[in-house]
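Throughout our pipeline, every protein is held as a single compact record rather than as scattered files. Such a record has a labelled line for the sequence and another for the backbone structure tokens. This encoding replaces a full spatial description with a residue-level series of whole-number codes. For reference, a complete record is included directly beneath this paragraph.
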Amino acid sequence: MSDLPRTMTLVRTAVSASLDEVLAERRTALVGVGGAADLLDAATTLLSGGKRMRAVLAATGLALAVEDPAEREEVIAGPTAARLGAALELYQASALAHDDVIDAAETRRGLPAAHRAMASLHAGRGWRGSSSDFGSSAAILLGDLLLSAAGREAGSALAASGADPAARVAAREAFDAMTEEVAVGQFLDLRGEALPLPAPGEDATAAAALMRDQALEVVLRKSARYSVASPLLIGALLAGLSPASAEHAQLTRFGEEVGIAFQLRDDVLGVVGDPATTGKPAGDDLREGKRTVLLATVWGRTDEAGRGLLREVLTHRGAPAAQVSEAVELVRSCGALEDHEREIAAHVARARKALAALGEPASRPGASDVGGVRPSRATLDLLSDVAEALTTRSA
């Protein structure tokens, strides 16, 4: 077993300090710009929460082949891991600011979403125009600012890492590919919500299967890789992992399978999660019209009356609370949650199979290792515990 809590503490402490430095630098750079402080205050609030798991994964990738405990801690809590983790956290905050505008979300981690907070700022100061429009526009610009900061910090982290030039190029390409793919995944999600739901009388089984395939495509591109696989691979590539190696292929498979299970768990929390823990109201995904894998399962399991209820809730944002509660109860009662849990377990099992393959000695001539050494036992144990933490979470 790994010491995941110790690793998370080391990474969070180092990354939080790095983020403080980034924000302080931006405040100094923009000190003479009237009003910029409001944007940076919003950035500070958005960056103050979160588990920093992407940063943990990036640090784990950096220490992929390191076995000695003292050396591992030095890498995991070191300046390269801290700055790379900060870049990932800045990027996530950018994505969250934009995502909450798209979803018209009210809250984020128990606090007003950025666009809601900016709308309140506008209203509180008695400024002209629509507070809601101002809030949405300001949150988009906040996301842009954070995206710019993420790119700058990623470049600085790689340049100062001392890694081989080829490793720096591979890591930067992976970072840029991640940001591009999330934009595509976000559009696919937006497009999916705009597509008409299956009509009454349409083959529910076939419709549910298509809905599930489309939802999984969004999961992979919008969430799974960016939440787990990409941070882990960016760190490992910077540590010298060859993109053409067998280890890279297995690590990718592990990260994608855990990432899918992570998002499928989020599907559950977005409908039946405890608001006191998730920071969002129960049924929030239904209220926002999200086309999730869980929804596809419910669609195939319920009857036409149930599908009619889902149509009403999913196509009318701001549906009455009683109607949303009825839809939540439908999710609970139709057996979809049990099916969904089995699917999560299947993805976790495939991830663990990939992890087991990573731990096997190279069995074929020319099989590649990381820097001439197989991934360490300490790394494999840590990744096993990370998989458990991400897929059994309650928030």
Q: What stands out?
A: The chain has a mean pLDDT of 93.
